[in-house]
What we know:
The chain has 321 residues and is α/β, with parallel strands linked by helices. The protein has 12 helices and 10 strands.
Amino acid sequence: MRYRKLGRSGPRVSEIGYGAWGIGESSWVGATEDESVRALNRAVDLGVNFIDTARGYGESERIVGRVVRERTGDDVLVATKVPPKNRVWPAPDGVDPDEAFPGEHIRTSLETSLRASGLDHFDVLQFHVWNDEWMGRGDWLETVADLKREGKIRLFGVSVNDHQPDTALALVRSGAVDSVQVIYNVFDQAPADALLPACEEHGVGVIVRVALDEGGLTGRITAGTTFPEGDWRNRYFRGDRPAQVERRVAAIVSDLSIAPDEIAENALRFVLSSPAVSTVIPGMRSVRNVERNTALSDGRTLTEDQLAILAKHRWQRDFYA
């Protein structure tokens, strides 16, 4: 496993981190706690030292905390998220920060997460949405500073609105944030336009989520793909979206001259080819997924020719809407 700095002054984190939404047994159907625990332990065995969870991920904080507390000899870093008090995702314009992240709500959510996980602190506390209109307003920044002084959190970050990377540029440039979590993948390359360069310039860590487009960039989504009842992906891949994804992935496979089952590897290597990226956090619900993804931390990034080919496959859309 290779490691990168989480921002200018942050800790060294495994470049393959662990996205723990899918193990929470809520939105993703099929996860079991026993398999999740095995997968988490295998990830740590293979050098993963960064796990990303959230208050809104069902049982995820509890399961992650269980594993981290049992791994007493391993320095495993855990990031969690505070949901907005108004429960509005993504953060729209015109909302007062006291409606979304008042200080009392931030503190209450964190204390709940600490109890659920059994941990005495989180290495990164993130707001689950963000809007740059909140800069210089509300008491969120003072609360974050207090929580750092109290030792309950080490770093502060935000999870940038889906497919809206420019909505955090002012925050990154302000020096008030240690990390940002953002969607960045072969389809959504927009963060490379302004956000990633700003993070490099200002020493802000970058946590990449949805590197595989919720499964779209694995090659396993086809026109006939279905998901279990109650699985949120039924909405994400509704209508003719699976067929659209299948066509797009087939074009990438053809242009790169790779085998269809190599698309996920190339998608993750695309993300890791950016020096601004600190870690990528694919969701991993099985030991098999852990072993396949962590094997890619071998120092090999894509060539300039491959990156030029992938630049032509930028596909701006919002399947969350």
